Amino acid sequence: MGIGMRAAAAASLLPSGLMQTSLVRGALPMTVFSLTALAGVAMVGMLIATAVRRAAPAPIVVPLLATIASGVVGLIAAWLVSDVFMVFGVSLGWPVIITIACGIAGLGFLIAAIVVANRRRVPCTVARRMMRALAAVLVPLALVSTGLRVDAIYGEYQTVGSLVGYSPYASIDSITVHRASMTVAQWRSRARAHRLPSMPDATAGRVVTADIPNTRSQFHARRAMVYLPPAALSPTPPRLPVMELLAGQPGSPGRLVAASGIASMMNAYAAAHDGLAPIVVVPDQNGADSHNSLCADTSQGNAETYLTRDVVDWAERRLPVAKTPRMWAIGGFSQGGTCTTQLAPRHPDLYGAMLPVDGELKPTNGSVADMVRNYFRGRRADYDAQVPVNALAALDPGEAHGLALFAGAGERDAESVRNMRTIAAAARKAGVDEITEIVVPGTGHDWHAVTAVWHPGIDWFGARTGLGDMTKELKDYPQVEVQE
Questions:
Q1: How many CA atoms lie within 13 A of 110 on its CB side?
Q2: How far separated are the first and last CA of the chain, in Å rounded?
Q3: Where are the transmembrane segments (predicted)?
Q4: Residue 403, CA distances (Å) to 133, 329, 400 in order
Q5: Are 75 and 117 in contact (CB under 8 A)?
Q6: CA 18 to CA 400: how far, in whole Å?
Q7: How does pLDDT run across 292-314, given as a tens digit for each residue?
Q8: What is the 3-state secondary structure (H, E, C) of the chain?
Q9: What is the CATH number of domain 172-482?
Q10: What is the pTM of this model?
Q11: pLDDT digit string (tens) for 45-102?
Q12: Which of 213, 229, 474, 484 fits a disulfide with 205 by CB distance 3.0 to 4.6 angstroms?
């Protein structure tokens, strides 16, 4: 059993309420931040008191200088890791860089305070012990506060359970999902006549887990997540559109569902559209957090076949889904966004729409030479065929005309903004005639950008697939800037 599986198994023994405690808002982060601030103020007060008793500035000046020096070193180190060496493949963004620098500055202050407290010339033994104890408490508090703040900026881990792969969702095998028996247009007609089929409350869509067989690909994927709108849970469901969504790397289907808030957005949409909303299928394109499949068929696994054949075959066999490309979209964040613009133009017979956020210009895991050697058995042409601009250029006019692009990027992630514009330009050149580019102010390479883009994106896709008309223009949605 792997580390992740052992952690998830251990988490299952803990109360579900604890596992679902929020890490980004509410009591837990506020308590940690408050305790850190109070303990920090107390430590400064004790250092000032020591300086006054000794009639010497060293007890306060030394920690102050250590704080400044540590902060500067931390800022430079975080910037080098983020923007120069690109250790994580993308820039961390200045809010994260500054947060890390502040955390390192705090640790520098505490180390200096401990040194001051241990100096033999500190006259009061009780004060020395109190400072040591306070510093011992502050070190983990400072680390946890820094981690929580970074997580809040990204929005990656929403709950305590998400840290260990805990899932509160039941298997799809625990519910009955019926075959489609009408079109979306017929469902809407019945709604207008007040003759809707029975279904759960219009806001009560379900998130479930699913083991999708890898019949064609033999790709070893983790369990997928599926959102079923209320109409899909009816005994007589309509043939619904599908959004196949992909997380980043590292990432997982469960983290996409939690971090994007996709279920809440879909439930809100369903409540306004007589229980109708797209079915969302979130498969795993990597198999593990540490593995990057490039979303391609390579020597390291047939991820492309899994995502475009096994997943699609399973959905068409198991769920009440429509089977025409116009009714299918693929989307994703970061690596999932890159996969989106790879796969849709390579499979225009399956997907009619793309919803990438903060994607890259090409599949990336090391240098191109390394990927050609390690993934594509030395065949450069096979790698080049996976590059989105090349895949778009290979479309014939009819295929390009059937595609649509609804792309977004966080304003602070300048590289992703440039990537989005490059992909959009390639799509226009290929003949894709429905293209939307959105920049999200105040966000970077994070899930906040994803949520802001997919909120109007769901309405856009719903209108495109006949679920309902858009009731406002894109520019009227909060926190988005539509690029002309």
A1: 23
A2: 51
A3: 36-53, 60-80, 92-118, 130-148
A4: 62, 10, 5
A5: no
A6: 48
A7: 999 999 999 999 999 999 999 99
A8: CCHHHHHHHHHCCCCHHHHCCECCCCHHHHHHHHHHHHHHHHHHHHHHHHHHHHCCCHHHHHHHHHHHHHHHHHHHHHHHHHHHCCCCCCCCCHHHHHHHHHHHHHHHHHHHHHHHHHCCCCCCHHHHHHHHHHHHHHHHHHHHHHHHHHHHHHCCCCECHHHHCCCCCCEHHHCCCCCCCECHHHHHHHHHCCCCCCCCCCCCCEEEEECCCCCCCCCCCCCEEEEECHHHHCCCCECECEEEEECCCCCCHHHHHHHHCHHHHHHHHHHCCCCCCCEEEECCCCCCCCCCCCCCEECCEEHHHHHHHHHHHHHHHHCCECCCHHHEEEEEECHHHHHHHHHHHHCCCCCCEEEEECCCCCCCCCCHHHHHHHCCCCCHHHHHCCCHHHHHHCCCHHHHHCCEEEEEEECCCHHHHHHHHHHHHHHHHHCCCEEEEEEECCCCCCHHHHHHHHHHHHHHHHHHCCCCCCCCCHHHCCCCEECC
A9: 3.40.50.1820
A10: 0.89
A11: 888 887 887 777 877 888 899 999 999 999 999 999 988 877 776 777 888 899 999 9
A12: 229
Enter the tokens of residue 171: 């298997």
Q: Are 354 and 329 in contact (CB under 8 A)?
A: yes
Mean pLDDT of 143-153: 92
Residue carrying structure tokens 């995502």: 307
Residues found in the chain: 484
